[in-house]
Amino acid sequence: MIKKVIMQGLFLVVLAVVLGVGRNMVAPGGIPWVGDWGKVVVAEAGDTTIAKPASAQPDDPPFITLEQATALHNDPKVIFVDARYAEDYKEGHIPGAILLPFEMFDDYWAGVEPKLPKDHKIVTYCGGSDCEMSLFLARLLRDKGYKDIDIFYGGAEQWREHKMPMDTTAAPPAGA
Amino acid sequence: MTSILRNEWLGLIFRLIVGAVFVYASLDKIMHPEGFANAVHNYKILPTGLINIMALILPWVELLCGAALILGTKVEGASAIIGALLVVFLVAATSTLIRGISIDCGCFTSSAEGRKTGWGLLVQDTILLLFAIHLLNRGPGKWALEPRRM
Fold first, then answer.
1. Rounded to two decimals, what is the model's pTM?
2. A chain contacts of residue B59, beta-carbon cutoff 8 Å
3. Would you give the distance in Å from CA B65 to the centre of its chain?
4. How far apart are the CA of B118 and the nearest CA of chain A, in angstroms?
5. B20: domain range?
6. Is residue B70 part of a domain?
């Protein structure tokens, strides 16, 4: 019985591998065998390195470098928005950043919206190289009607690595 | 109770239900591997190097096993694989609930408007798992291309 189950199962799996691999080789729209998920893509010529996720689309809001983020951070009219969870925010965030977790957007939005005037520039960020919530949040805010959004994909990770000041005060609870 | 479980028609009904669900679940994913790969990536469970391979092969496993159940051939092997997959799906979906993340489950469609992981999904997968265990134990039942047994 067990042998029969294993033989049948093996047959089905091997056939599935052959069909799956075969289709990907011949069909249009095939995908690479190994995707570069969340890998930091370093673009741009010269020394300006811009980190952006592999899933970034050409019509997404612009990605900015750490240098650009630092410069914008000195401008009091620019609002930084942290797309991570409240726990991550409390562990250390860019000073002045507003907490708006992408995954809990609806819970937080009512409390955050009054603090985000539409005529201000917004910079979204999250954890850095393995986190795409800054991008997703930026898309969401753009759909909400925000015109001037930048994405600092290097995020809290790059900010910390470069010994930039971090704030560890907790955010107000969701909706407040 | 046992007499109901021994009923040969029950095997046929379970085969058709589980088979149809898996065949249906596989089709959109086979057509759109990049969308399904995204769904797998969102779970943040697999090492990134394995995501695309998994996204290419898993839907075919679902299709073949589902078709095998509907036709009533290789039923034991197919229901064992489907049972194992359901356990994996249950663990993955539970982990998203525990981590408090709401993602597209990647169950029936690879598109972003798909259903989210949640309690309903756990219930559905558990019921399918019970059906699969029944088929593994008691064989294909009525109207099988390859009837039981040993």
1. 0.63
2. 20
3. 9
4. 14
5. 2-136
6. yes
